[in-house]
Amino acid sequence: AKKTGKNRIEFFNEKLSNELVVKNEIIIALDRAIEIKSFFLNFMPIYNSNEMIGVEILIRNDDEILKKHGPDKYIPIAEEAGLISRIDFIVIEKAFNEIKKILPIIKNKKFFFAINISALELNSESFIGKILKLITKYNIPPEIIEFEITETSLITREENATRTLEQLKNEGFKLSLDDFGTGYTAFNQLQNYPINTLKIDRSFINNINETTISNKNKNSMVEVILSLANLYDLNVVAEGVETEFQLDYLKSLGCHFFQGYLLSKPIDIDEFKSKLFL
Ligand code: C2E
Ligand code: CA
Ligand code: CA
Ligand code: CA
What we know:
This protein is an alpha/beta fold.
């Protein structure tokens, strides 16, 4: 028994140290990527029932380590290592630079650009100032920028967050709560935040299929979010729509905005422009 116990500990130690090695590799790769600003942008279109009405900007990097793990893995590590703000601002500045070029030729004046930011930005005293400086530098109307913040990260830093969110709203920026439904937002707290949009987390869309949905058995979480949004007058984007069935079902519940592989995968700037000017 003793022997198995010891082996088990060694097994855990090995797993733990592997995890630490990977983390360390990622931090080194992030450091370098920040240094040479090698991050670039992908674009994931957001649609209403007949046209592209906006786009979410997603971070990419061709560094071997970063490419292997993807942003879902390295963004949280960047947050932990204190690197996220520099990354967010590389993305924001590159995004503004592209938007400045695209803007004069966009016909739909309501077209919006959604940019992910870490909720850690909301605690930073300098965040608003830096954003406004870039807005001026690139001559971007704040109304076309929607910042996406994850629901979970928002609720854990309530006090500081609210002030920055108010400032962003007052400047004209839009705000959306990302991965909505996975956190524990007391729904009546929603009115305390200056939010425009809820993005239903992919996991709730994922399990919509012919077997889980019958006339009697509806997807309650999606329904709850939609009625909540109705109550507080918020837009809802369904994320991760992969099948016609999911799209039809979401439409039948009164959802108006959609994003997912069925409609478009994340694409590079050239492909995005060609979709935009089709
Ligand atoms: P997110 O904001 O929830 O972004 C959506 C993620 O889901 C993207 O992954 C996208 O490619 C993926 N996705 C969208 N539709 C579908 C679908 O129909 N099927 C499947 N299987 N996947 C779908 P990605 O690009 O790997 O981004 C992962 C996360 O990294 C993002 O989740 C976001 O939280 C974070 N992130 C991405 N870019 C940035 C950034 O510039 N700054 C910060 N702070 N975070 C970012
Ligand atoms: Ca997002
Ligand atoms: Ca999301
Ligand atoms: Ca996510």
